[in-house]
Batch of 4 targets.
Target 1
Amino acid sequence: MMDKASGSLTAAKLPLRLFLWLFALSTVFPFALLLLTSIKSQPDLLRGAFVLPDYPHFENYVRAWVDGHFNVYFWNSIIVVIPVVAISIVLGTISGFGFAFLSFPFRRALFVILTIGMMVPTEAFIIPLYYEMRHLGLINTYAAVIVPQIAMSMPFATLFLASAMQQVPLEILEAAVLDGASRPRILLKVILPVILPAISTLALFLFIWTWNEFLIPLILVNDDAYRTLPLGMLFFQGRYTVNTPVLTAGAVIVISPLVVSYLIFQRKFIEGLTAGATK
Amino acid sequence: MKRSRLDGPAHRNLLYVLPALLLYSVFVFLPILAALGLSLSDWNGISTPVWVGIGNYVALFSDSRFYLSLRNNAVLMLFYCLVPLTVGIVLAAVVWNLRQREQLALRTFFFLPYIMPTAVLGIIWAWLYNPAFGPINRILRGVGLGGLALPWLGDFTFALPAVGVVAAWYFFGFCMVIFLTGMQRIDPSLFDAARVDGATGRKVFFFVTLPLLLPEIRVVLLLTVIASIKSFDLIFTMTRGGPANATLVPNIYMYQLGFELNRFGYAAAVAIVGAVLIFTVNYLIHRFVRPAGEGKA
């Protein structure tokens, strides 16, 4: 079936394919230029945007990492991403189980309330959230960035995992019930292994969303010591606009974990993100 | 729903959903309700909020900056939705004819921008667009088009399209991948049948591929329209709504009103209008963009 398609465009329409590849390169071009600029010196840069440097100036990375505080931002991003992903998955699995199999009062209403949270943009409730965090004394703490992001991922995590659990064959569950296994045990030993692919897809989503989150740390943190990478990048830009090589080195530091994981889990990324969108 | 074998007494069941719901209520749902309440009051962030009813919404009706932000958002929608949709669907139709391996390679490239943080993309593109030392203007000068080397993000006319181009660049590959996945779902015999009937490549595209891709078109429309209404990161890092409000959109206006001018009630009203717009668009697209002959969501 695949072969019916192939051939029709191979050699005959070379210009079209060339055009296609040029288009594809347009997505990579800014990143390639970024990488190139990040290893240049300032004088190299003046000689032209596409001129190769005499030797790679890795000291730009050192400057971004140390003087630009990217070491702080990087660790902050990791300190934030890990608990957000881990706790969201744990809580989402438990509540997903609840919504998939259990009955409780106001089940439908609670379901609707969760869906609302998936549609309302963060911008709509950031002002009350800011004052709430201030009232709780959490502004400028890791909790300010971590806790709201876990809360914000609850609707998606719950509904995504609930729908994954509903795909688990009923016979397996009934066999476990007949064996007299307790519900936590069934969830942990029977359901969890089956929905592991869904969990890893969810983990990937949560990782990207949290790593890329901008508004929450922008509003809820104003101490440089707690800024995550995208925020750090913004304030770093304010200080170093003139030093383009160091700025681009900083940008490479922000996006390289994403690019590396993208190249490793490419299929999972593309299929997960498009499937998540089409749901 | 049919009672599951796993079901138990309600108070025990609640234990499963309570932690997630509690966290969600305290940090998302209550703030949403509070934003609704706040939008009905006047508050500078310090003194006690004053109830003004729908006063803020009435004021929005005659606020020319708010209208401007909506107009800008409408222009941006062309770049967020129309361009990626058209480019994505055409690319998918072409890529579909290639060998499997080449398809996968192209897909990897096209999808790349979509995984990036939009805030950082904004900063990168602000550098690319930089009037003095940005690569774009250097290329233009290099090929003798120095006259076109505009101060893109600082230009009243071009700032908005310049931001739009970045949004289109961010989304088109994602759209293409969704359409490509959609085409895999289509029964290949339909293409063959159309060809046997004498339809040419272009006719097959318009009369077979396009109608069958309606579910994907709907998804793409939904996602990109909502993304355009939500747009904040990209604009905040590229222009902050400037120059002279040329790129002002509702969310940026909300930020300025709230966090720069301390008019929190009014800012909340702007934010609520944005959320209502999203709900409306969601409803309209679900209601009117339907695959022919099937009613399922």
Note: The mean pLDDT of chain A is 88.
Target 2
Amino acid sequence: MDKLVKYISCGALATPIIILGIFLVQVFIDGITHINLDFILGSPSYDPSKMGIFPVIIGSIYIVGISSIISFLMGLGLSIYLVEFVTNERFKNLVYFVVDMLAGVPSVVYGLVGLGFIGYVLGAGRSILTGSITMAFLILPLTVVATLEAFRSIPESLKMTAYSLGASRQEVVTNVLIPLGLSRALTGSILAVARALGEAAPILVISGLLFTKKVPLSLLDEFTVLPLYIFNLVTRPQLIYKELASAVIIVLIAIFMLVSITSIYFRLKYSYRLYEV
Amino acid sequence: MIDEKVFEEKVRRENKFKYLPMLASLLPAFFFIVIISFVFFEALSFFQQVSIKDFLFGFEWSALFRDKSFGSIPLVWSTFVIAFIALAFSSLLGLGSAIYISEYASEKSRRILKPLIELLATIPTVVYGFFALQYITPALKIFLPNIEVYNALSSGIAMGIMITPIISTLAEDALYSVPYSLRMAAYSLGASKSQTIFKILFRAALPGIASAYILAFARAIGETMIVAIAAGSKPVFTLNILESMQTMTGYIAQVATGDAPFGTIEFFSLYGVALYLLMIVLGVNLVAVYISRRFSYLVSKL
């Protein structure tokens, strides 16, 4: 009986991993032949054999970069305040509750509010600016989890040492909390970055199904992003588009892995600090 | 001696410094209020043209035809059907993998498996939609020859694979945090490992496991891209899960791609549907929060 439970639960763990593994291998086989420099650096074309995705990659980089920075700064401020300034447990719980609720709002609703409020009411239009601010709030709950965990993990003794040496709160924050917590907070935020990279629904609402050859430059330009482009390709029936969609999926996963490896590298490089002090 | 001036200067700076992070901690609440009130007020202009009674209890949704009718039951029905398929598919897989990671895996493999599962959760949902349309539907066609190209079943299964990591991560947290003493007590009474899992750990971790299921269910209800790709765009009220169905999020995605002009009734209907969706999802989330808070109190008394 014990063995049975063990094997069944192991099977339950393995099933989704194996299914996804098979799918990803299939995607790789279908898409890898389409990946070359012309595909990465070319612009979208109505002729599927000349299809490129450069403007889409740039759109994704803009959205992910700006939204991650905005949301990381907000998360940083929020967790520093909650960890170091607030003593009222009820206030803390209230903030956690609101963040939980924010995490529960479906992403497509973020898109509708982003488009309606930032896009139309505040007048930013269907632009990169609207997209990245919306995305920043969408990933905020994930960033908050990462930054909170990083700052909570800093030993109380280090802070107390600083206070006993006459440091003010500001000095404790800038000289103890931030240097010690930052690398952990950044690596924890990788899940948020992944979310920003892969989320298509809010961008679908904000930018529509845009098909453009123009590389977005200013913050007020129209744009499209990689996951949305996959959606665009998947909805067409011809086989070639299925292969192109696979190719874009490979690019998306490659970018994600690049970001993760960089973050792991930085974690390994800077994580010694906590042990050294 | 402390120099009075230096001291005062420090206090002043201290007080000023506080406001920036304080602002950041108020932003989520501010934005949450903006979301709710914006969707609410836009939906109001929709409900000025369509009666709430017709919207809530109407069986026909034909917003994009010339003869418009805004009865939301087909959309809500499809949303719940697909979310239930997802939950049915993922419930055992998610719980099983949680049991394995928490109870059977060694500490070392736990440290590898847990991030791996979390990594699965970062696969973009649009990719799951691609899987549903290109791989799952053709595979199902072997067993169910009369399945439509766009259907509820394959998007439900893809969604199930998507929410499995959520269930397994949260359920594993709940199982793992059951005090070690409870396990030891069970063993000392002669219980086997499986008896301990099913009779002791499950009961102790039940609130956590239940809220894991509920949160995953909420995610499934709000998920957009999978259904936009693989479930089709036929807002019909049907029991047949091999047919195309349109969920609430699917409708929003369809209108968004079709570029509904600002100010038309189609545009405002987006916010009507969004308000309904928001209320359902937040309600479900509140239940999850309530369960895990209310009953974790009981567990701590064990």
Note: The radius of gyration of chain A is 22 Å.
Target 3
Amino acid sequence: MTAVVVETKELAQTIVASVVAGVGITVVFSIAIWGVARFADFSRADRPLAAGAAAALVGLALAATLGAVVFGVVVMTRK
Amino acid sequence: MNSDLILVIVVATALAFDFTNGFHDTANVVATSISTGAARPQVAIGMASLLNFVGAFISISVAATVANDVVDAAVITPTVVFAGLIGAIAWNLITWSFGLPSSSSHALIGGVVGSAVAAAGFDAVIGEGLVGKVLIPAVIAPILALTVAAVAIGLVYRIVGRQRPGMVTRGFRYGQLVSGGMLALAHGTNDAQKTMGVITLALIANGSLGPSADPPLWVIVSSAAAIALGTYSGGWRIIRTTGTRIIKMDAAQGFSAQGAGAAVILASTHFGFPLSTTHVINGGVMGAGAGKRVSAVRWGVAGNIVTAWLLTLPAAAAIGALAYGATAIFGSGALGPVLVSLASLSLIVVVFARRSRRGAPVPAA
């Protein structure tokens, strides 16, 4: 009965995508913040290689965040 | 002449509902940003208002006319729509006066269901649609957002917990500007369409538009403007509840709540399983608190909010039915809608004037 009333496939897709996107975007952005903090620490400690790696991580995490935002806008326009 | 006048009243009432929708739902978009200090109140509300306006133009899918799956289309007349809108507006203002965030979509559905029942009896209600499109999503939305935000904030604290708090707070505040912007866009895209759909249906029913016509430009612009203006007016009472009374929020929790909210809303939009923005963002706020510590959530406040959600459909339906009954007393002409509009407007002005004096901006954390 419930399966008839509720579109179970859409519901399952919504749940999976919500968990992946919601947790994913928050974790990725947190990694960017962690990277910024580490970059500052490594720079002060005069460790350029480690600072460069932290900066690269920040760049990747911010790019992924920006990608998620663009994807979100695309989802809205294709509704 | 009569039908044209009723059409004008329906359009004006739909735009008034759209205004209350923006006014009522401002909190969904800005409350967390304001309470964590990510943005000053007027800046957050101005940005949300602009993005709601823009969001209304992103998609004009009239399929978003929410009552279609819930009420038999054959019984929907301009008077039924009018009475339903009165029910929705009244419930939005009642919940606003108590500072309770409730779903404007559910208020609209409830209002239309009530007026349709008053017009044509309980056979007018499509039970499967009501359960599948409204009741079950209403249960799923807050639980899903709560779970996502709780898991997310747990991981966030593990990742940044040992970093300097000042830098972390600044970072998440910047992030909140983006996540809040996404929420505002999604809100404008979802909610302004309801009004566009209602007005377009009324125009079609009146013969002013063809059966499968798209909304005219003036409908899109006026709906976008009404929701943006409502958002800009800012429902401070609900902003205070969502932003500071459910949990005392830090910037990471604010970002997690908004990120979870935006992800859930966009995922549900993408897969065609629409969920209420209000239920999602408030579930996200509760989750962001519970993920840190279950006792961090003021469950009494959360309980009041859930009670308002449970009451939304029946209460809006009862008011919608009363409005239809009062309209029908004066026959099928324009006199009923005119008198009910004037009576409603007078009540609204009185309630607004008395209550808005007590609303004050929320201080940043």
Note: Chain A is about 90% helix and 0% strand.
Target 4
Amino acid sequence: MKQLYIILFTLYLGSAFAQTKFTAHVNQNSVTVNSIIKYEISSNENCQIYQPDFGGLQVVGGPFQSTSSQFSNINGVTTQSRTTTYTYQLRGQKKGNYTISAAQMDCNGKVHKTESIKINVTDSPAQGNGQNKNSDFYIRVTSSKKEVFQGEPFVLTLKMFSKKQPQGIEALEEGSSTGIIKTDLNPNQTQYETKTETINGMRYYTTILKQQLCYAQVSNKITIEPYYISALFRKGFFQQYRQETTSNKVVVTVKKKPGVQPKDFNGLVGEFDMTHSISKTTVKPGEAIDLNITISGKGNLDTFDEPKLDLPNDFDQFDPEINDKISTSTSGISGSISFNYVLVPTFYGDFNIPAYTFSYFDVNTKKYKTLSTDDFNIHVDKPDNAHGEIITQKKDIKVEETDIRYIHKSGTATFKNEDIKSASFIQYILITLPFLGLWLILYLKKKRNNMSDSDKVLAIKKKAKKTNAKYLQDCKTLHKNGKDAEANKALSLALKRYLKDKFNLTESDLSLNKISEQLNDEELKVKFKSCWNTIEMYQYAPINAEQIDVLINNTENIINQIDKQV
Amino acid sequence: MKLLLTILSFILTGHSFAQSTFEKANSAYENEQYDIAIQNYMETLSNGEKSADLYYNLGNAYFKTNELGEAIWAYEQAKKINPSDKDIQFNLQFCNDLTVDKLTINNKGIGNWITKVLFSYSHNFWFYISLISVIVTVISLYIFFTPTSTTVNNITLVLGGLFSLILIGSVIIGSIHKARLTEQNRIVIIAPKNKILTQPTPESATSFELHEGATANIKSEQDDWYEVELNSNTGWILKEAVWSY
């Protein structure tokens, strides 16, 4: 029975040992900004542990693993419990509420979870707290100036005070700040020089950890949030321990600059000087001119913008070559910056480049000052070559028509709809008529060609008087000119021609008898015979004007009578 | 022949240009008295007399008085008479760019080119061409039918054939030109904003809207309404809201 109890108890214990412990906890729930929180996860099992989400808290250190073992001997039974602890160092960089989610442990598929933890991060403690907290170890941030002008440099110095000699700096975090530009004076520092100072009767080891050159960019109060460091000290001979602290807050007032800000103020604050040089002022087109502008002095030279020169259109401009010799020290930025311009005129003539000016704020006199170069007057010679020595691109003529074109001053003649003759009656008439006329002419021509011989003879007979009238006319003309003998001959010809046509006679048939046969009227026959004979007679006898006159009249009468009769 | 010349000379004498009114209007325009200029230009037009320059200047005067629709109407009229005038084209384009509605206006292409080539001459150009072709054709035919050498025959045959074709062409083109100058088959919107209705009744539904200066083709008309078509849409609009050209 007793044995049974022992067995049962052992079993109970066994189950008790088998129970898994998996917890997470922090050392404080409510902390100030940049204070360190310790977060620990402990487990008695050797299982896979998953790190939780820290919800925006920064992990400064860890996880540091530690193991503790516990032996116990109960009733001669020895048991061993082993606890593994993972420690994280966390801090909140901004005030607010943070939640560390549950950590998870996976033991052969069995998942264990811790509870999530809420952390409240409050505002930084008042200035000087750093010193009060750990008076044997503290850091201080100091500013070289409490009041600055915008753009005026000041130096922030981070100094560590400790009663023990520090062995090393494990971590250094800058406090956040807005509205300033910080430049480390020793950006890659690895060795720190430690001095001894006596403060309030106590000896301290002091180390300057950081020196930063700052420029205010806004005109307001600037707050530099506390810096954080974690330093190592020696404890005993072999052991080291860690100490952490945060610094004080620094407030710097940025003053407004007195006076009215000039238009060409470019943000420079300090003391400056400007020099300029030009290689030549008389050139030929296409020849390069070197123009140098150098700004030197103390102040925020690194923010200096490239000078904008107002160049004439006929100059080609290239980006300037910039040379800066700037050094940064605790007294600010100093040195010089020079701009080398290469100008190439593309056309001849006299050109003016207006002076380059800028204003800066002089910290010593607390006034705006303006620096200016001279005007540059450049004479470009006309090229010897008539066509010019350089080829430039043809410039487009820009046309922007923004209005309608002007009225037509001289108008062409107006017309009415009735004036349009196309597709009108008159057009059809004028087109048809010529064709009709052509048809008519061709028809008549054809008709004549188709006449029979007798018809032709008849036509000749009909026209006999008309066609031969010109011979009679010739005769009359001759008579008028007094050539009576010739007139008689012509008269004879006229009569014969007429008779030939009229009676369709051949040349040989032209005799008095033959013609007389054709005449029916006896009286006419007699008249004709006498006329014919008279003409014949005068062929061989002289004739006077009176006689021929009578003769022509007679002949004419006879022709008329014959024409009527036949 | 003498008769023909007499007829021709009678035809050639057109109506005298109302020069004094035109110059009066121009000087009013120069003095920026655009209303007076419009009045004077319109006076000539109301007599039934017209010319491309007259319409063009009227368009300018309308434009200067901010009457965009009327200006486009006048430029379109001017373009009908002289489609190749660069000033008219420019000002019309300028006004069309100012209108609200986006219309598909085809200013290029072979059709437009043919229009410019055929209808840029005076209103009786094709009439004279037809008369000249008649004369040449008839003379050629006469010579052709009169027995001469074969060479002459061939030449006159070709000449006669060519000019008879020109004759037919000029008669057809002339009648098209006349229709172009006398018929009105398009409208321009004069009223600032218009509803184009589906039926020629004021109560009917709106098909689409048009703003001042938009142009459209007339499809048909009924009482006080035009049926118009543009961008392949059709609808009815009151005659009083538009000017036809």
Note: Residues 425-449 of chain A form the longest helix (25 residues).
